[in-house]
Amino acid sequence: MAGTGTAHLRDSDDVLMRIEDLTVEFPTSAGLVHAVSGISLDVRRGETLGLVGESGCGKSTTGRAIMQLPAPTSGRVLFEGIDLANIEGKHLREVRTQLQFIFQDPISSLNPRRKVKDIVAEPLRIWKRGTEKERQGRVTEVLDAVGLDPEVAGEKRPHQFSGGQCQRISIARSLVLEPKLLICDEPVSALDVSVQAQILNLLEDMKARYGITLIFIAHDLAVVKNISDRVAVMYLGKICEVGSPDALYSAPAHPYTAALLRSIPVPDPTVVPSSSGLLLGDLPSPIDPPAGCRFRTRCPAAQERCSLEEPQIRAVAEDHFVACHFPSIGTTAA
Amino acid sequence: MLTADTVHDGALLQVHDFRSYFDTPAGIVKAVDGVSFTLDRGDTLGIVGESGSGKTVLARSVMGLLTGKNVMRSGSARYNGIELVGASEKELRDLWGTEMAMVFQDPMTSLNPVLKTGRQITEGLRYHLQLSKSEARAQALQLLDSVGIPDPKRRISQYPHELSGGMRQRVTIAIALACGPKLLLADEPTTALDVTVQAQILDLLHQQQVERHMAMVLVTHDLGVVAGRTNHIAVMYAGQIVEYAPTTDLFANVRMPYTQALLHSIPKLAQPSHTRLQAIAGRPPDLINPPSGCRFAPRCPYVQPKCNSEMPPLQESETPGHLYRCWFPVGTEAGREALAHNTAAGMPAAVSITQILADPPGGTH
Amino acid sequence: MTDLVSPPDGIATNPPPASPASDKKIKTAKKTGALGIGGWIASIWLITLTAAAVFAPWLPLDDPAKTDFSVPKNNSSPFTAGHLLGTDNNGYDILARIVWGGRVSLVVAAGVLIIGMLVGGTIGLLAGFFRGKSETLLMASVDVFLAFPALILLIAIVAFLGADLLNVVLGISLVSIPAFARISRATTLTYAQREFVLAARAAGASQKRILVREILPNVILPLLAFGLLVVGIAIVAEGSLAFLGLTSTETISWGGMINGGKKPLQQDNIAHTAMIPAVTMFLTVLAVNVLGDRFRAAFDVKDSML
Fold first, then answer.
1. What percentage of residues in chain B have a pLDDT greater than 90?
2. Contact C5 B68 (CB under 8 A)
3. Degrees (nearest 5) of the Cα angle B283, B287, B292?
4. For the complex shown, is ipTM > 0.90?
5. What are chain B's domains?
6. Is A225 in CB contact (< 8 Å) with chain B?
7. Which among C42, C68, C1, C41 has a CA at the least distance from the CA of C289?
8. Is some CB atom of chain B closer than 8 A to the CB atom of A146?
9. Which pTM was predicted?
10. Which of A52, A157, B211, B294 has the smallest C-beta neighbourhood within 10 Å, fewest atoms?
11. pLDDT exceeds cutoff 90 at A142
12. Contact between A197 and B50 using a beta-carbon 8 Å cutoff
């Protein structure tokens, strides 16, 4: 079967994480949900990969499958060359500490019955890192780094904080084990815009300070552009387009990316919203996705070939890849 | 007298010094604290603010939808000359649905999960307009068709959970429009939806509004949503309107430092990656004991001693109809001096906004 | 209560930590609000009752099993000399029997809380956390148990094992297990789906650690609140068994006292022998329920503040 291809993967020593042909399926009472269907991605050390798409595109499932929470149905997740699917038990738990997660709902991701300093220290206690005093020092350091007063914040419980502050606590907890890769799943979508800016700036600062690599999952294209070095657009469990943000946003090659960009309301009254080029209809069911190209049922450029043959990812420009037979830039697929 | 308060013929909704307080165990929360605006027939007013600014409370309590014993409303809200503050439940009920209607944020919770969509639309038609069963059904089919639901005959006998999120929001809009209201309050109508669906719904609301010559209040946290779709915008902060202006003028000549900060905190598509965002440090004030001066003062890059002691009134700028609540407004000599003073003193918020103003990062602002 | 509207849209009802004055305000509001007057009265009643029951042998009370022949006639009313609450038709001191009977209720309450909550709670916790086959198996066995009518099951247990107090406690505890298991499983399910559990897993925590440190503290408090409600039911259940004469007559219990007061009430129109233990039981169950309710409300508030 046509996967989505691997043309966009890079052969280089500094690739920290490489995902090959990742597939995640869930059995439900209505049938097998094809949440993620054979996607491949890679992230270089120190890079931020933005994963963007609408709800149901499989972006969050991808993030969790990377962590093996739960493990993917098939495919390889290579972290520094180690296939996470092949290791188990304590070894997996140990490797996984180098990958950390930040969730969308900052409140649900903190245990309401524990004090902040215990929440942040928990990963250190699990791995019995250092003495209790050293652990406290480390907790103080990360709380300070994320902009919270360790003396005051440490003794409180999560419900005494605002959403933005809870997200800072989450970030502190994820940093305490000095991970190499941070997977952020919609970390700012539950926050107000002013707080969103604080958290985005904080993530950039933490990246610079601790040299971490980020996978940033979000539905907001502007947010993803702001933070990413490379962007992958997903639709219904597949990757549509991968490229550098500036190229991808200024000249989207995939009709879906183009439609997404057109849908975003611009905070500028001189730009009159036009209803032309907007997507019609709804997302097809992931239980019975369309054959061929999965976007063809809503695609303004769809032709017969799209229902017969699944497009493979291929380069249309320097560091710009697309899975479409008839992209708006480059040539029609051979 | 201020423009927003003056009476004129086209006014459909006139809100004057409106307050909505909540009595809670912790104290009295001044959720809406002295708000005035006028909405003309067929016009769209955008109410923008962050969570806790009071925008949702304003929309709901103007309509009289918050009826708890611990809700205290005062001031005046006149719909078509009828005073809504202090009106009885019965008087309000005659207005709800037929004169004013509401679209909520989450179509999953605003629709009744155990009733078919058809029944939920026809209920209002039969109650308010006294239509027969078959007339109501015909009307419902037509409504579903007009809100862009394909195959209305099939959809009318489906339950909400059988519909997608966008489809559900179309149904809630159909319910709101059923009895031909003159005023539609849309409270974050697209926040729960994906961006491509959001565009569809905003288009639908706009199209219906034009067709029916209906006034609309669009409550949202997203400045992008209101920019292209409203005539006026009211920016709310800590229970007050801090800036009120015709939409184009608001974006072109921002006066209120809060509005300016909000605009600069949004990442924009036109900016290159890794553009440093202007975050607003701190958090909104406690609405039980709000500061006696300007409520934005503790977070404001333009703040001066006067701001902490005296609450600025809503005053009009040189553009008629553009009101703001600030002693040192953006784009004026006083504002420039205040910012320069704070920048020289090394206040971080002032320094970063000065940098952004000096060197706009690729954006339109 | 239901008439109160909380301000929507995340209005800052809990003020920012920067304002100590309003922080204090919330605390004082909580202090009176958490228990309320009813809660305080309930607590005082239960504490008095418990203390009296525990220290019964050292209290200046009559022997509850000794007939006072000095009273002119049995069933003397309350406030007669030497008998604050009067005597019953055997000439026993009612106050002493109420206090000693309270011991039975106390044992029943403790037994249900310890056995029912421990066993049922653990079953629910494991079922809710591990899901899958173990859940099906555990919950199916609990369901089978639940399918028996509780009272018939109780009677069967008592009849089969004998009617001493231990068996009664065991029987009532056993019957309460399914309810605890269900509540515990439901609570575990909601918390197991929260992302802080996923976060702990991502930090490398073992299953056991997640269960004990992340989930248990969240489950135990609602379970305890529910436990108080079950205690009320259990006290009534023991009373019913005693009233039906299914427990040992040697044991002094409120249910037994009500049973004993049945005859004077019906034949001689003497109410106090039955009414005093009945009112005591009623007040106790009411107090336990009020406290359980307050307890649960306190946690609901905390959850809604999140």
1. 46
2. yes
3. 90
4. no
5. 11-234 (3.40.50.300), 254-318+327-363 (no CATH)
6. yes
7. C42
8. no
9. 0.83
10. B211
11. yes
12. no
